[in-house]
Write a structure and sequence with these properties.
By secondary structure, the protein is of the alpha+beta class. The chain has one helix at 28-44, and strands at residues 8-11, 14-17. The protein has a two-stranded antiparallel sheet. The longest helix is centred in the middle third of the chain and has 17 residues, at 28-44.
C-alpha cells in the first residue's frame, strides 16, 4: 500500500483524514446552558426597565355628568 498524503493515515484498506487539533469548540449543551443562564439572569435581575416610557397625560379627575 502506498504511503498516504500528509494529514491522512491509512486504516485497513482505506485512507482517513487525521483528527483536527483545533481549539475547543462549544458543544450544543454548552450553548444551551449559556442561553439558559442569560435568560435566568434576566428573569431574576433584569436588563433594566423594559417598559416603554409613559407620558404624563392629564386625566380628568371628574367625568362629565351623566344627565340625559
Amino acid at each position: 500500500m502506498a504511503k498516504p498524503p500528509e494529514g491522512y493515515h491509512a486504516v485497513r484498506s482505506h485512507i482517513r483524514r487525521n483528527p483536527r487539533t483545533n481549539g475547543k469548540k462549544l458543544s450544543g449543551w454548552t450553548i444551551a446552558a449559556l442561553i439558559a443562564a442569560v435568560w435566568l439572569w434576566s428573569q431574576l435581575v433584569g436588563f433594566g426597565e423594559a417598559r416603554p416610557a409613559q407620558t404624563d397625560t392629564p386625566q380628568p379627575s371628574v367625568s362629565a355628568s351623566a344627565v340625559r
